[in-house]
Every structure is written in C-alpha cells, then in structure tokens.
Amino acid sequence: MFHDRGTLKKTALLSLVVLAGSNAFAQGPRVPKADPEGVRIERDVAYLEAGRAEKADLYLPSRVTPGERRPAVVIIHGGGWSGGDKGAAREINIGTNLVRNGYVGMSINYVLSTKEKPTWPQNLHDCKTAVRWLRKNAERLQIDADHIGVIGGSAGGHLAAMVGVTGPEDGLDPAGPYGEFSSRVQCAVDLYGPAELMEYNDLSMLGKSREEAPDLYRKASPTAYADKNDPPVLILHGTADKTVALKQSELFAAALQKGGTVHELVVVPDAPHTFHLQPKQRDLRPLVIGFFDKSLKPSAAGE
C-alpha cells in the first residue's frame, strides 16, 4: 500500500507506462491505407456529444443486401486506460473478422486518463454511449438493434466486461446522450482484462490509491456485479501474460460462476499479454466468432 500522494502518482504512472508500452500498444495506430477486401471502413465518426474529440471507426460490409440486418459489436481498445487507439492492429483484426462473418463493428476511442486527470466513470460512459449510438443509427447501418455485443483487450477488456455486467440499477449508465436507448449488450468478450482492481495496481483513472478508496476500486471491478441477469461472457487469457496476471481472469470467472452468469474462461497456452483473433499460438476466430454467433444471431441462438 502507498501512504503519500507523490508515491501514488509515481507508482500509478509507472504501472500505466508498463501496460501501455506492451506489444501492440507500443506500436501505435495501424489504420490500413486501403479497406480490407469485403470491408468498408467509415473512419472518425462522431458518436459522443458535440465538442468531444473522441471518434469511432465503423466496420461495414462493402456490399449490403437490402433488408438485411446484422448484429453489431463495439470494439474497445487497450492501453492502460491512458493510451491506445481505435485503429491499432488488434482492433483492425477484430473489426475485419467481424464483418467477414456477418457483423457490423464499431471501434471506439474513449476519454483517456493522465496522472492529473481521473476519467472514471466517463470512460465507461463513452463505451455505453457507443452501444446507444448503434441503436440510434440502426436503420442507416442495417443493424439488428436487439443483438449487440462488446469486445475489448486489456484495459478495453475491463471496460467491455463492465459494459456487459452493469446496468441502470448499478448507477453507472450515463444520463445522455441518447438516453432513450438502452446501453445493455447481449454478450461480452474480455481479452485478458483486469477484473478485480483491489488485487491489481493503483490507477490514475480512479484518481486515488486502493488504500485511500477501496470502495471505489471495488465498484470499478467487473467481479462486483456478476449475477444471473448478466449476458454470456467469454474470457480469454494467455499463460505468458506478464502485464495482467492470469489470476485476474480466474477471479472474474469465479465471480461469474458464483453469480450464475453463463460464461467460459479459455486459457491460451504460451500467449503473451496482447493478441488478436489470430495469434500464432491458436486461431481464435472459431471460438470468438462462434460465441458471437450463438449469442447474437437469432437463428443460431434458437430464437
């Protein structure tokens, strides 16, 4: 535990640098010069209230059948809640694979913290607003507004999990914009995200240390909200992760099990902290796309 503010700031900043600097985070944006085959990307779409700098990239099919309705998935980047970008390599890989398997993808930027600027819960509010924005624009995008999922990696995995397991009753839904639309999702995929923050690091996004504000850290942890009303959750974590301990995903899975939430934890042998759907250790597309198909496509779900 840390007992003075100066030490807290130094420790939190160091933790964020380590998290933000690993693998794909250090590589920066990887926005393709040309759209991938079969995919049309609408870049830098405004989805938040007027004046916000954060934008989204939409991953859409290059050809659309009239009357077709596709499920949609919000993609949340990592970067220690203080860095990262919607156009990084992992997010491009996920968005492209989603479109090629019958989905619309929405990769978002959200408010980022600094050591002087806490951002919780605004970063979560931004993610929930993206879900609402998809429902508001369902007609134009030919989206099935009743079937929306979320996926994220690392810090984005934490936020994706929070979107999945929290609702209006938890006091973490934004008042607006688009407050007339629900921000609930029908499934969530958490890629190696921190889930029990009381057993993680002191975080600048929360503005205080765990010692100073244990209740704040608990309320920002996905493990605190798991219950039988949550949608299905898929968790993936690598055994070679040196940034977020596998224990974080194990604690999340245990909380989901206790709460009665449908879930699966898949441990990927030898996988490092950052991977997308096609790491060298294992092709995860059948697993992740299959999970989305079961959860978001009515015919596959038996609806």
Written as H for each helix and E for each strand, in order along the chain, the element string is: HHEEEHEHHEHEHEHEHH
Global shape: globular
Q: Architecture, according to CATH? A: 3-Layer(aba) Sandwich
Number of strands: 8
CATH C-level: Alpha Beta
**What gyration radius follows from the Cα positions, in whole Å?**
18 Å
What this model shows, in words?
- The protein has an 8-stranded mixed β-sheet with strand order 1-2-4-3-5-6-7-8, sandwiched between helices.
- The protein has 10 helices and 8 strands.
- The longest helix is centred in the first third of the chain and has 16 residues, at 5-20.
- It has one domain: Alpha/Beta hydrolase fold, catalytic domain (Rossmann fold, 3-Layer(aba) Sandwich), CATH 3.40.50.1820.
- Strand 5, helix 6 (155-165) and strand 6 form a beta-alpha-beta unit.
- By secondary structure, it is an alpha/beta fold.
What attributes characterize this protein structure?
303 residues; alpha/beta; Rossmann fold; eight-stranded mixed β-sheet; BD-FAE-like_dom; signal; hydrolase activity
Give the structure's gist in a few sentences:
By secondary structure, the chain is α/β, with parallel strands linked by helices.
SSE inventory with pairings:
Blueprint: H1 5-20, H2 24-27, E1 39-46, E2 55-61, E3 70-76, H3 89-100, E4 104-108, H4 122-136, H5 138-141, E5 143-153, H6 155-165, E6 187-191, H7 214-219, E7 233-238, H8 246-259, E8 263-268, H9 285-296, H10 298-301
